[in-house]
Amino acid sequence: MSELAKLINDTSKSIIDMAEASLKELSPDQNIEFKDTAYHLPLAYALLGKEIKTASQAKDIIASARKLWQGQALDNGLNVPYLNGFLNQGLATLFCEELLTAINYAKGKTAGSGWIGFIPDTILRSLGLQLVDGRIAGIAVILGRPKDSSAAADIIRGFQEKNIVSILVGDVDGMTLADQLKKEGVEVGLDNYIVPLGPDALSSIFAVNFAIRAPLIYGGCKSGEWKKNLEYCQERVPAFVLVLGKLDEVIVTTGMGVLNLGFPIITDMDAPSVPKIETTKFEAIVVEKDYKKIVARCVETRDIKIKVHKLDIPVLYGPAFEGERVRKENLYVEFGGKKAMGFEFLKYVDMDKVEDGKVELIGPDIDVIKEQSLPLGIIVEVAARSAKEDFEPILERQLHRYLNEAQGIMHIGQRDIIWVRISQEAFKKGLRLKHFGVILHAMIHQEYSAIVDKVQVKIYSNKKDVEEKIKEARLSYTKRDDRLSGMTDEAVEDFYSCALCQSFAPNHICVITPERLGLCGAYSWLDAKANFQISPAGANQPIQKGKILDDRLGQWKNINDFVYKKSNSTIDKVSMYSLIESPQSSCGCFECIVAMVPEANGVMIVHRDYAGDTPLGMTFTTLASSVGGGVQTPGFLGVGKLYLTSKKFILAEGGIKRIVWMPKDLKEFLQAKLEERAKEIGDPDFVSKIADETSATTLEQLLEFLNKAKHPALEMPSLI
Ligand code: SF4
Ligand code: ZN
User: Fold this and answer.
1) Where is 177: in which H helix or E strand?
2) In 3D, which of 138, 271, 253 has the Cα closest to residue 202?
3) Which atom from ligand 1 is nearest to the alpha carbon of 502?
4) Ligand 1 centre and the CA of 505: distance in Å?
5) Residue nearest to ligand 1 atom 6, measured at CA
6) Ligand 1 atom showing the smallest separation from residue 132 Cα
7) Which pLDDT value is given to residue 335?
8) Which of 91, 102, 278, 583 has minimal Cβ neighbours within 10 Å of its Cβ?
9) Based on the domain organization, do 288 and 143 belong to the same domain?
10) Does residue 87 share a domain with residue 21?
11) Mean pLDDT by 10 residues, the chain (720 residues)
12) What is the CATH number of the domain that holds 159?
């Protein structure tokens, strides 16, 4: 046996032994679980087909691991006989590492403060959309750290600039990469694309059992379908492992396990290079000792496609900086917010009124002002050969993202409620107000060249000007709202499809109508229409409605045909307005779930940010696990928040009057629109009849509340 083979063989065995011994310390009926997941021990669930909930059930994991370790196929056929059996032994190791961490939780040991540990399902769901729309290009699982902290900052900045999320695991000689970043003043956190998982190498398993949930959530893969689950990760999860500064037997053996998911390993340590194997796209193991080249090597090896925006500004730029906060201690100057007036406004004007690229600052720049809180007005004037007023709100909505993506600029809100902060570092690096214009001009051209030919930006920093110019903007905001709210499904010829999520959920297709936005909440009918103009062969296609088949359900022949084709022949009928009969499928990134509550003859709604209990006895996470993967689930529907107040909301079942419960937060968020709808249905007090968690978290409490409130659903025809 070669030295390496012996090392992997022995290490794998000792980890299996360790898990077994650790398990014996628990009583057989003791619970073993991770919090906030519907997938139990996800790796065992996905690949072994086992729902492990107790210590005695967990013995199955040990037995399976031993078999794999010996190179025997499991009952469900699981067997990955590549690289001299290393992959099987690596996988056996992963199963036991997952079990060990779960046992640690059962014993009350957590990852420690500042570390995330097990990653909940909701984070994966919220990342899904960012992965499909390209805001996240890849995931780097980084074990250990480079030699010095300036290299650490460079590597992480390199990933941030390429929209790659860094997941940090373990230490070298007691120091972690997170420590190094802190020293360099780099802010850590999911918003900054830097996620600290845990201080020991064992925590890398949390990255693995995070990745393995993607096929379950998005891919429609089932528990135990080990091959499909692994292939999904190999093909669709753009992750890789970077091992820095330390390479011990546990890391090597775990690494063999990770190769099963197709994630290559890049390291700065002395290690044998391994060319492509069956599970990887290119090389399996790559050695790169030059820190300056390491980011590029990672990207090449995993074949990650990068979109970089090169802008002529003195700070870094990219989606990784979008969520970055500028805190008080670090604040140089702020605009708008509570203390001053601020607005942004984009409009189409005539071609000859725009000088492309012109940025005018009317008022003082930030190097001459004395105050820390100032008014600000941003007017973006765009022109196109055929101006498209309809697209103004879509373009204007991007300003938020464009400005936020600059390092050191924080932008919150839109229209006349903007709040903008600039950090001290950004100021020191030379960032000035005119750069706002540089950013907006460049980004609009990059992303919307199909509907915009010229862009110029005017920035106002005097109170008097801002007060004056805000008036015109406000008139326009109102006009736009009226125009949009008048749009109905009946009034248009075409609906639009969205296939963006197919890179994750290959059978899922959204149909977007003026009165029903995409279930992720990010794309309205107008957005889809604009996107189609921008890229005619892209993810959004018009579908001419054609002949109506059923106006109660909202079914059209052409829509059905289109969905059948685009869902790989898995869905032959789809109702735009029904929850029960052929409802739309879900990919997994829905903002809310609508679920039938038969006992109350109505539906409840729960959104992603609500972690508590619902009257159905299930949390969002549990409910969500049965609504996804591109399949139709009668009685359940993934929807965007705004669809809840649409006149077409589950019309076939009687519409909004069916809503019996939703979390308080969501109710407050939708309050004004819900009240408007309540008036329209002739029940002005309706909103107060909807229960929330303060009035009911069980079915009994719910029914009591509804009876007292005389909720209309109780009088409606039976739902089923
Ligand atoms: Fe995905 Fe549908 Fe949103 Fe498109 S509209 S991004 S397919 S959820
Ligand atoms: Zn989606």
Assistant:
1) helix 177-183
2) 253
3) 7
4) 10
5) 500
6) 6
7) 96
8) 278
9) yes
10) yes
11) 91 98 96 95 98 97 98 96 95 98 94 92 88 88 97 96 94 96 93 94 96 94 97 96 96 97 97 95 96 96 83 92 91 94 96 94 92 95 86 91 95 92 96 97 90 95 96 91 84 95 91 96 90 88 96 96 96 97 93 96 96 94 89 95 96 97 97 96 97 97 97 95
12) 3.40.50.2030
Q: What are the φ and ψ backbone dihedral angles of 240, each rounded to 5 degrees?
A: -150, 165
In the chain, the amino acid numbered 103 is I
Å from CA of 517 to ligand 1 middle: 9
Question: Residue 323: what pLDDT?
Answer: 86
| Separation of CA 104 and ligand 1 centre (Å) | 38
Residue nearest to atom 1 of ligand 1 (CA): 501
Among protein residues, the one whose CA lies closest to atom 5 of ligand 1: 518
* Domains in the chain, number: 4
d(CA 615, CA 707) in angstroms, rounded, equals: 15
Q: How far away, in angstroms, is 585 Cα from ligand 1 center?
A: 11
In a domain, 288, yes or no: yes
- Distance, CA 501 to ligand 1 centroid (Å)? 6
Domain harbouring 29, CATH code: 1.10.8.190
| pLDDT given at position 386 | 78
For residues 537 and 579, state if they share a domain. yes
Query: Two tokens at 412?
Result: 């919150």
At 153 the pLDDT is: 97
Please indicate, yes or no, whether residues 546 and 685 belong to a single structural domain of this protein.
yes
Distances (CA, A) of 559 to 493, 511, 534, 556, 574: 12, 8, 23, 5, 8
Which ligand does the CA of 497 lie closest to? Answer: 1
Ligand 1 neighbours by CB, cut-off 6 Å: 129, 498, 500-501, 510, 518-520, 522-523, 587, 589
Which residue in 270, 171, 250, 235 sits closest to 205, CA to CA?
A: 250
| Confidence at residue 503, expressed as pLDDT on a 0 to 100 scale | 84
Containing domain of residue 463, as a range? 319-476
pLDDT given for residue 455 in this prediction:
96
* Probe target for ligand 1 pocket from 125, 132, 497, with the most ligand atoms within 8 Å of CB: 132
Helix (H) or strand (E) run with residue 334 in it: strand 331-336
Report the CATH number that the domain containing residue 606 is assigned in CATH: 3.40.1470.10
Predicted confidence at residue 420, as pLDDT, reads: 97
Which ligand 1 atom minimizes the distance to the CA of 528? 5
Answer whether residue 166 is part of any domain: yes
- Whole-angstrom distance, CA of residue 170 vs CA of residue 144: 5
Atom of ligand 1 nearest to the CA of 587: 8
**Does residue 482 lie in a domain region?**
no
Question: Does one domain contain both 290 and 426?
Answer: no
Q: How far is the first Cα of the chain from the last one, in angstroms, to the nearest whole number?
A: 65
